[in-house]
Fold this sequence. Notes:
With about 350 residues, this protein is of the alpha/beta class. It has one domain: TIM Barrel (Alpha-Beta Barrel), CATH 3.20.20. About 35% of the residues lie in helices and about 15% in strands. The chain contains 13 helices and 10 strands. Helix 2 (about 50-60) runs parallel beside helix 3 (about 80-90) and helix 7 (about 175-185) crosses helix 8. The longest helix is centred in the middle third of the chain and has 14 residues, at about 140-155. It is globular and about 55 Å long. The termini are far apart.
Amino acid sequence: xxxxxxxxxxxxRPTDKLNKRARIDTGSECAYNCFFCYYHDTFRxxxxxxxxxxxxxxxxxxxxxxxxxxxxESSEHSKWLDIIALGKKYFRNVSTVSNGxxxxxxxxxxxxxxxxxxxxxxxxxxxxxxSHDRITGVAGSWKKLxxxxxxxxxxxxLVRLNTTLTRQTVSHYAEYGKLLKHINxxxxxxxTINPWGNCKAAERAAYNDVCQVAKCVVFHISDACYxxxxxxxxxxxxxxxxxxxxYLQHVYDPYDWNLLYxxxxxxDDEEAASCTDEFDVALINRRNSFVKRIECIKCKxxxxxxGVEKTSTEPVQPISGNRIVDCNHYRKDYYTEYEDLxxxxxxxx
Length: 349
Ligand code: SF4
Ligand code: SF4
């Protein structure tokens, strides 16, 4: 029985607004060496300005309003400031994903800010220098990351965090709690290691443990801090369902990448590339990377949940109750301030 098809048929498509943020690929240039990086094979390839410019035009004509510059490490690009300036010509908000290395230099961050950068999603994987530097493979990377976050907050930038939890870090929820309370980011994303692309899953933490960290952190962070737990089964987040962001919730998360734009021109996935609707890409993505077990049929989250990653052997825990068929059910009005915030953040840029 094709369980994904069955789940797809039960779903209703919410009328909520789809995200309009494009990932602009600047190339896989990066000075770090995180063992779970998706880009190891293509490391240190910088994309030319012409290709980046073409992508921006394409993103704008596809209806994208904001962008995330992403590599590798975009701030390592030799034309970094030119890329921000170009982004500002076409888009309202220019954001980037970063390991913090370059932004620990206050002057460099100030120049980036003055050119139009207003938001940074920092990759904060460890909870202290030993754990973080072990993951990045670079001594001193934690110190630089903390300095970069401090610099960005002093400038009033939007600071979000991506934290990939591993087997080694996942038991340190008290440390993460204290740390996040202290940093007070705008949003924290917890991620599991998924064995996709060049990423090997040797240190993959169990879903249950990843979700445990997220639940513990709730008691430390302020009410204003958004929490996202990416690609986990809902059955591990009972009472915290609002924080689950699987593929079908991702398309309504305004801070995340538009899946339809990302799928365009992807030669590895012709089916997704031929889609005209972001929701359809989300359905294809969950089918390609996740499975539902036969016992999932009796679960109330059956329609809206991705299931478990294809290589996972972890048990699922079906939850009884009325079937939820609106995939954005737990996230109605979660990000209501987005449009106003983006305007405000960029009013002087
Ligand atoms: S900082 Fe990001 S791009 Fe660089 S190695 Fe780590 S995961 Fe890869
Ligand atoms: S039992 Fe299956 S459908 Fe239900 S939440 Fe868990 S993985 Fe998802």
